[in-house]
Design a protein that fits this description.
By secondary structure, this protein is α/β, with parallel strands linked by helices. Helices cover 47% and strands 13% of the residues. The strands form 4 sheets. It has a 6-stranded mixed sheet, with helices on both faces. A 3-stranded antiparallel sheet has the order 8-7-9. Strands 4-5 form a two-stranded antiparallel ribbon.
Length: 434
């Protein structure tokens, strides 16, 4: 993979001006110096969002004519496959998208990344103070920060208001896990599929296990497990979380064939009105529309959302949240110009603009008022009151353990494994990584 000056996909911007500059050099303008190139590797598929980034790049380059920001796209799976090699190559990007968690930690240990703590703490911590404390701490390991915060995500339940009314259930009545199970039973009794599930990709099901671990054990139990303390993943609270998930599975709440369904297919099931509930990301309203059979999906006013409920007797708080914490990982040899551009990309004005377009839930302090979509605003409000925001378990625990978490979650909910055996498998995988 080669970083081109500007690919046709991004409009060939500034080629003419650079060609003119090259002509001047050939004419003997030897005092002129080449622009500092900043290579940006991203995964964004939506052309509207890429266009928003391009506008930000144009503004920055107008203010810094000696800097050339080059954008390079890689598809998600190709990114995961090629990044380790790319980081050791001569074509390494200056910064790239990161999900944070254990994957970022492992990358930091290879020596391929730049510790951005000094940049955050320069000028009396001006840049550090520009972001929410939780977003910085989530990208920090052993006192060093390895990515510039970009956005935060939230997993919560979304529901079809019309189907809820048909089944005679109300979201506001779901206060705890028992209430949720009771709601699932009533929806099924009304002849409606309760939940759209993407069991084929497995990770969508791990959201249930993860949230139940958080509700049963709380932060103390999970932090102990992932740092190898106490009983680890064999803690009784974690086993109990598996029992809770198995109880849901016994109700057969998902659409037929869910074990082979991808996440886009699950979104389509929800968007087509064929299931009442889906547990998904903050941008579920937009994504169900894209994946619905008619390309329109459910009308926004027909979609509601509610937080993952509490578990009676559990140590976790109902205000503890699960979701992404994304940033831009900076590579070892990245220039100061790359860091300066990242500070610009993620400043309050630009994050506010991106939030208004529906791109993200911002991490920049003061940018929250940019969230105008009602459902996104609800997610932002919940995050603002979060007592513990936990990154996705399969990301936080690293790729190897994360895969086992995803496998186990599906095995438990489908009745193919009991919760104790599942906890043992995760513990075994964790110990192999130590």
């Amino acid at each position: 993979m080669t970083f081109r000056f500007k690919s046709a996909a991004f409009g060939g911007r500034r080629i003419a001006s650079m060609a003119a500059a090259a002509g001047m050099l050939l004419a003997g303008a030897g005092a002129a110096s080449a622009a500092t190139v900043v290579k940006w590797l991203h995964l964004e598929l939506d052309p509207k969002y890429v266009a928003a980034w391009e506008d930000i790049v144009k503004k920055y380059e107008a203010q810094h004519p000696d800097v050339d920001i080059q954008m390079q796209f890689l598809e998600n799976e190709a990114f995961k496959a090629k990044l380790p090699t790319l980081l050791q190559s001569d074509d390494v990007p200056d910064f790239f998208f990161s999900w944070g968690g254990g994957v970022l930690k492992q990358q930091s240990e290879t020596g391929a990344l730049q510790d951005v703590t000094p940049a955050l703490d320069a000028d009396g911590g001006k840049l550090r103070g520009a972001y929410s404390p939780a977003s910085v701490s989530g990208l920090t390991f052993e006192g060093k920060t390895w990515a510039i915060p970009y956005k935060v995500g939230l997993v919560s339940f979304f529901y079809n208001k019309e189907l809820f009314a048909k089944a005679g259930v109300k979201a506001e009545d779901i206060k705890n896990w028992a209430d949720f199970l009771g709601t699932v039973k009533k929806i099924k009794a009304a002849g409606i599929v309760p939940i759209a599930g993407g069991g084929g990709e497995k990770w969508p099901i791990h959201f249930y296990w993860s949230y139940l671990v958080m509700r049963e054990g709380g932060q103390k139990v999970f932090e102990a497990a992932k740092t190898g303390q106490g009983e680890g993943f064999l803690d009784p609270a974690i086993i109990k979380a598996g029992d809770d998930l198995a109880e849901l599975g016994k109700l057969e709440p998902f659409q037929p064939g869910y074990l082979g369904s991808t996440w886009p297919q699950a979104l389509g099931v929800f968007g087509d009105g064929k299931a009442a509930i889906i547990l998904g990301f903050e941008n579920t309203e937009a994504n169900q529309r894209k994946n619905a059979g008619d390309g329109k999906g459910l009308a926004p006013e027909n979609i509601g959302r509610f937080a993952f409920p509490a578990v009676d007797g559990g140590a976790g708080k109902p205000t503890d949240t699960l979701g992404g914490l994304n940033g831009w990982a900076v590579t070892k040899k990245a220039s100061k110009e790359a860091l300066d551009f990242l500070a610009f990309l993620t400043n309050a004005d630009n994050e506010r603009a991106m939030a208004k377009s529906g791109m993200l839930l911002p991490v920049a302090v003061g940018a929250g008022d940019g969230v105008t979509n009602p459902l996104l605003a609800e997610s932002a409000k919940q995050l603002a009151g979060s007592t513990w925001h936990q990154n996705y378990f399969d990301q936080d625990l690293g790729a190897a353990v994360g895969r086992v978490v995803n496998d186990v979650s599906v095995e438990i909910v489908s009745g193919q494994m009991n919760s104790k055996d599942g906890a043992q498998m995760i513990q075994d995988a964790f110990e192999l990584e130590q």
